[in-house]
Automatic annotation (TrEMBL):
This is Transcriptional regulator. It comes from the Bacteria. Residues 1-57 form the HTH lysR-type domain. Belongs to the LysR transcriptional regulatory family. Keywords: DNA-binding, Transcription, Transcription regulation. It comes from Heyndrickxia ginsengihumi. One of its GO terms (molecular function) is DNA-binding transcription factor activity. It holds the Pfam family LysR_substrate. InterPro entries: LysR_HTH_N (IPR000847), LysR_subst-bd (IPR005119), WH-like_DNA-bd_sf (IPR036388), WH_DNA-bd_sf (IPR036390). PROSITE patterns: HTH_LYSR (PS50931). The keyword Membrane does not apply.
Length: 304
């Protein structure tokens, strides 16, 4: 059954039998045979086929969703059995929201790779809400997020603190203003991440604390685009110290000095609530816990 589900998932994601065959290193007829066998087992057709496309039907959507979850559980079961040999070896699927995933996680993975080269991580970067859904669906072993969670059946643990600052372009009119009040910033265009992002959640909490809200908010789906927009003078934003360290060093972005800042939030990790964890996952969690100060890992980073 594992192989049938793997072939089915690959066909769905490649949207083509030939591309799926190439990905799995098997023949096109073998792919067709696996799909037919799965459909016979389930008792209905799962795919709508034509010469140009392969698409899920309603039954296929149900099977695809659960097949991803089943394979995730099966892979972890195999890793747990392998761990009985006391080897820190195997795959580790890590998800992270954008700030941690793009600016901090690469340094953590390099740290892990140097000490545990037999652990093979795969990385998924998405917003906090999406990472939570993937962990809840058994498609990720662990997720690192910047906001809260809604799935109460997941284990949640804060492990590091992050400082966030309001950043502006290098020639912004407020840079040299003394005794700047937060209320003045409501006149500005705020550049923010989309709903579901941990960074967006932080901005909303900041507005709520001051009981103020700007009239103009522009959304972007990437921290990198937000930084470019702020550099270009389009508006201002609240961003993590780790996301803007290079721009601050280069002088292309500046931090506004307000007595209420920095805004503090927590980086947290989420996993399934289970006593059974692979050794690779246990080691990764221990690395996160022992390095509460991110600079312990990112020792090549200095903030201006």
């Amino acid at each position: 059954m594992e192989q049938l589900l793997l072939v089915f998932i690959t066909v769905v994601e490649k949207e083509n039998f030939t591309r799926a065959a190439d990905e799995l290193h098997i023949t096109h007829p073998a792919v067709s045979q696996h799909i037919q066998q799965l459909e016979q087992t389930i008792g209905t057709r799962l795919l709508d086929r034509s010469n140009k496309f392969v698409r899920l039907n309603k039954a296929g959507e149900i099977v695809y969703h659960h097949a991803k979850e089943i394979l995730g559980i099966y892979t972890r079961m195999q890793c747990l059995v392998d761990d009985l040999m006391n080897h820190a070896i195997g795959n580790l699927s890590i998800g992270a929201s954008y700030t941690y995933g793009e600016y901090i996680l690469p340094h953590v993975i390099a740290y892990m790779n140097e000490r545990y080269p037999l652990i093979k991580p795969t990385i998924t970067i998405a917003n906090t809400k999406e990472i939570e859904e993937l962990v809840a669906g058994h498609q990720l072993d662990i997720g690192i997020i910047e906001g809260g969670i809604t799935h109460k059946d997941l284990y949640f643990e804060a492990f590091a603190e992050d400082s966030m600052f309001i950043v502006v372009s290098a020639n912004h009119r407020f840079i040299n203003e003394k005794d700047l009040q937060f209320s003045r910033l409501m006149e500005e265009m705020w550049i923010a991440r989309e709903e579901g992002s941990g960074t967006r959640e932080a901005i909303e909490k900041l507005f709520s604390e001051f009981q103020l809200r700007p009239e103009k908010i522009m959304e972007f789906g990437s921290t990198q685009i937000i930084k470019e927009a702020v550099e270009a003078g389009l508006g201002i934003s609240l961003l993590s110290q780790w996301a803007v360290r290079k721009e601050l060093a280069l002088g292309t972005l500046q931090i506004l000095q307000l007595p209420e800042l920095p805004f503090l939030r927590q980086f947290s990790f989420i996993t399934q609530k289970t006593p059974f964890k692979t050794k690779a996952l246990e080691i990764f969690i221990e690395v996160l816990r022992k390095n509460k100060k991110i600079s312990n890992i990112m020792n090549d980073i200095t903030l201006p």
